[in-house]
Amino acid sequence: MFCASSVTRAPVLHGRDTELDALRHLIEGAAAGAGGALLLVGAPGTGKSAMLDAAAARAASFPGAPPAGSAPEREAPGRTPGGEVSGTTPGRKVSTTAPERESPGTGPERQDGFVVLRTRGTRMEGRLPYAGLHALLRPVADRLTALPPSQAAVLGQALELGTAGDGLALPAAVLNLLLAVGRPVLVCADDVHLLDRPSREALFFAARRLEGEPIALLLTADDAPGGAPFDTSGDGSGGASPELPADVATIVLGGLTEEAARQVIDDLAPPGLTGDLRASLAHAACGNPLALRELVGSLTAEQLRGTAAPPEHPPPGGRLWRAHAARIARLPRAAADLVLLVAADPALDTVTLLRAADPRRAPAVPHRGGPREDSPHKDGPRKGGPRPAPREARRQDAERALAALEAAERAGVVVRLDGDRYGFRDPLVRAVAYGEAPAAGRRAAHLRLAALLDRDHQRLRRAWHRAVALDGPAERLADELVEELSRIPDGAAGGRDGFPEPFRVMERAAELTARGDTRAARLAAAARHAWHAGLPQRARSLLNRLNLLSSLTLSEEVRGRAELVRGSLELRSGRTGNACDELLAAAEWLLDRDREQAVRALVRASEASYMAGDTHRFLDITRRAATLRSPDDPPATRLMFEYLAGMAATFRGRHREAAAPLRRVVELAPSVDNPSVLVWACVSSLLLGDDAQALTLSTRAIETARAQGAVSTVPQVLEFLIQAELWLGRYSSMAANAMEGLRLAQETGRLNSAAQHLAWLSLAAAVEGDEEACRIRAGSAIELADAHGLGIASAISGWALAHLDVAAGRHASAAGRLRAVARADGTGGHLVIRVMATPHFVEAAARTGDVGHARAALAVLDRWVASTGSPDRLALAARCHALLAGPGEAEERFRHALDLHHRGSCAFETARTQLLFGSALRRNRRPGAAREHLHGALETFERYGARLWAEQARGELRASGEAPPSRGPGGRVRGAGTAAVETGAGGMGAVGMGAPETGAVEPAGAAAIQALTAQQLQIARLVAGGATNREVAARLYLSPRTVEHHLRNVFSRLGIRSRVDLVRLLS
């Protein structure tokens, strides 16, 4: 086989299903004698060459491809009936007669597959005419003899001597040579924008004449503004043309989706990569596949262990860095100056940028290698001659600067952004523009900007630029940085538009500080800011730098602050016991020096014991905190004290006593804007039974956290938003928010929050009756809970498995699981979850005859629900009493429970009571009365997609002597309402958990997408992002078989047949 490159197998390309489908259609069309051309355009590193490799691998092994010339005979496009090529000069004919085919037994042996010919443009050979064709056609040069003599002579002269006459003889000869191969041909021309002009024109000529021919032409080119990557200068210098071959289909390769980037990282990285490191790499790469490869390859052992900060951009000197550096190096001097200024401060508006470019305002920015040839001052200052007036000179300077900016924009280095400013499409371009400039140039740029920024309204940015321009300690400037940062409202200082985040400002202040104690305090503050920003690995690296300072020289206050950050990190991602110890030590050190931070440390220590399920230690901490109260405390501190008092009373079972401090927590919430403090108001609302208020507060806490850049707080808030949705019966929204919380927790390194979200997801799966998903998720949550001492996550998972057991009729198993949940010693149980799970325990215990334990558990539940006045909670308690009552009393108790349910909000629990009541009536030989309740229960369970509960209802209906309603194609009762769309208060929309109908339907739109269950929608989005079934299963903690089952239902529900259709529909 002739092939310009040997291809053994196609590369794995994640997130490129749509593009690969286009390549497949192109190759299949050429194999069938209906060829065509396709142009792939993208930034460096987006995988254009990898797409060519994939196409070449597919074509080389394509089965049963017909030989060239076997397509049905018809007039080829671009040819006149007389054989002239369309567009030739009248009177000048170029033969386009198809070349003679080899007779059997001569020439190369025929095989399956295509002939694959490849060439690649390079800047060096872009100045050599016909160099691209020479590389492309060498493997088939022996077929020149099959061409008409005139064409063979023209093409041979071009390939051997690099010369050829004008006109269409040579392009026609190239096309005919490809036809003379005798088999289907795939032509791959990489970096076509760097090819010499004659080669490029010949390929474009062929591209327009492939219909009806067994030839596929695949081209790639770098992107450029306006979609104009082509060099028309004829020398490969990269001048851009505004004209693309309009009649050649074009696909623009953008960045990979988040899920596809995750898959690339997982393919390349060693096992055990943490979620926050994976998220950092994906963020730094901006979806660029080559950037991902280079970032993973650059990881050090310390970065892999999590003790050093992750890389922020691909390594200098790598392929991607060099590609961008070469583009910047070709800019004119004035454009390069402006690009450096934009890199130094991407928040610059255009007016300030032009002022900074004025050579009269500051010294010129130095460049490597001295003045450039295009510099107006390369021969020194101008001497003599008339000078323009100052105003006219400034206007001319501004015009020159704007022209320079336009040159940088045309080169694809900068882009015009909203708000009259310039920036970078890719953060790596900014890193290259800044990193490639000499140190003196960077310092001059920062000093120039510091001198121009407003002294009153841009004080922090001015201080930052002055700080970056310095090398050694500068105590006064460091103090100024800290002071100015403290003036900025939370969330308003950093991370936007590339401006430094607060942790960078504090880190720079520490570097400029010589005093050891102050330097350490600022490193601790930087670590705290990094932690709040969801960068735990960066925070740990800053704490490690702090550890290098001698602890003997540090004050107790500084050690306390550092220990508070360290304990907070451990609280979110480590063992709760260790976190509690570290936070108590921090409180001890801070008590006499920073009382508010000491109280915060105690509250977090109590949270550690709460998460562990260690009631005794929790009460010890609350007793200690109670001695610290002061009437002068600010609102946030008072709120924390009231929360601890209310929780202490709750844990002692004194719920009426707990109500007053818990209400004061809610009352104080409007005066607090710290999302990590607002969380306690959410908890207080839940304990008071006010689920709507809990939703409102959690929504506000989430919005505040995002506005302040404290994204790492969002997973914690979602834990309590989910509990409110659980009480309200909004299970699909609960599942969607739990999935979002799991994603954010993994990305921000909050493993302990991830365990809780996994546990809540297992409970959502239990409601739906998905046994496999429930067990996988609960097992993963319990494994993480056992490793980190998370009694609450373990208890939620046990409750989920018990729910599954009760739904399946395994009451003894459920009762055993829930007894373990009741432990309050930090060994896998949790008091709060035990109370929430009491209705399931009473049901399971009553069915197994364990009435004594059921009554004891119910007494605890009674005390709590009576203090709340919540109809939903009171209804559950009334149902429990009905289950334990005698035959004469039970009916009255059930009716009272249903009355309470109808005043509440949870339709699902109403159905559960209807099912139990109907079952009791049937057993008491009242089948007619039973059916009314059983029908209502079945309809609700079907609407929720609660398969096991629906089966129970059907079984009871059959036992009552009535056949249950027939089931629809997807398992839905005929006539049952579809699930309503739910929207969580956290702003994450979800849909009802009804089972999808199957059967072929027409392609659907937004309405059908909304009818998917929350889990189906998650699976659909991941698959549309390029994930395989196995990858989706790993991400959602499901089995591949479950994913395949859900995906079949998704396809049927949406009326589609392929993943490509799914991508198009969801896009």
TrEMBL record:
Residues 1005-1067 form the HTH luxR-type domain. GO terms for molecular function: adenylate cyclase activity; ATP binding; DNA binding. Residues 61-113, 359-398, 955-977 are annotated as: Disordered. Gene3D superfamilies: Tetratricopeptide repeat domain, Winged helix-like DNA-binding domain superfamily/Winged helix DNA-binding domain. GO terms for biological process: regulation of DNA-templated transcription. It comes from the Bacteria. Residues 61-71 have a biased composition (Low complexity). CDD domains: LuxR_C_like. One of its GO terms (cellular component) is cytoplasm. Residues 86-98 have a biased composition (Polar residues). Residues 370-382, 389-398 have a biased composition (Basic and acidic residues). Keywords: ATP-binding, Nucleotide-binding. This is HTH luxR-type domain-containing protein.
